[in-house]
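Known limitations

C-alpha cells in this collection are predictions and should be treated as such. Users comparing against experimental data should check residue numbering before alignment. To illustrate the layout, the record for DUF4878 domain-containing protein is reproduced below. The input appears on top and the generated C-alpha cells appear beneath it.
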Amino acid sequence: MKKLLLLLIGSLCFAQTSNQNLNRDLNAMKNSFLKKDFETFVEYIYPKSFELTGGKSNTVMMMKMMYAKMGKDISIQSLTYKNPGKFINQNNEIQVTIDEESVIKTPKGTSSNKNTMIAISSNKGKNWTFINTLNQSKENLIKAFPNLSKKLEIKSNSTIPKANPKIKQ
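Generated C-alpha cells:
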C-alpha cells in the first residue's frame, strides 16, 4: 500500500516542458491531489494501470485509506518535474519521460526522492496520463505495459535522506 501511495504521490509535480497540454495536465493532476480530490486525480493515471490496482474506484478507495492513515505524519515539502526527454511515437501514442524530484517530510526526517515519470498521450498530445516508475525496472515496466517504447530513458530511482534537525546526531 505504501508503494502505491508513493507511486501516486510521485505523480503530483508540475513540469516545465515545451508542451502546453502536458503542463496543463500535470498541473491539474497535482492540484486535484493537493485538494484531496482523488476522483479527479485518478483521471490522470494511465488507464492500463488500473488493471494492476483493481480499477479506478478501488484506486480511489486505497488512496483515501492511505491518506487518512498517514495523517499529518507525512507531508510533501516540494514537488518538481524537469528535463523532459525525447517525445517518442509508439503504437499510436506519444510517450515522454520526465525527471521527478520530491521532498517528503516524515517523523524520521526529510528525504529527497528522484524518479522518472512517463507521460503518455493517446490523442496526439491533446491530453496526457502518467505512469510513475518508482522502484520499477524498465524491464518490469515493459512487461506490465507492453506498449511502452524501449527507447524511453528510465533513470534509476534514488532516495537521499536528510538529517532531521530534531534528532541529535
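For this record: The chain has one domain: 2-161. The longest strand covers residues 93-106. Please report discrepancies through the issue tracker.
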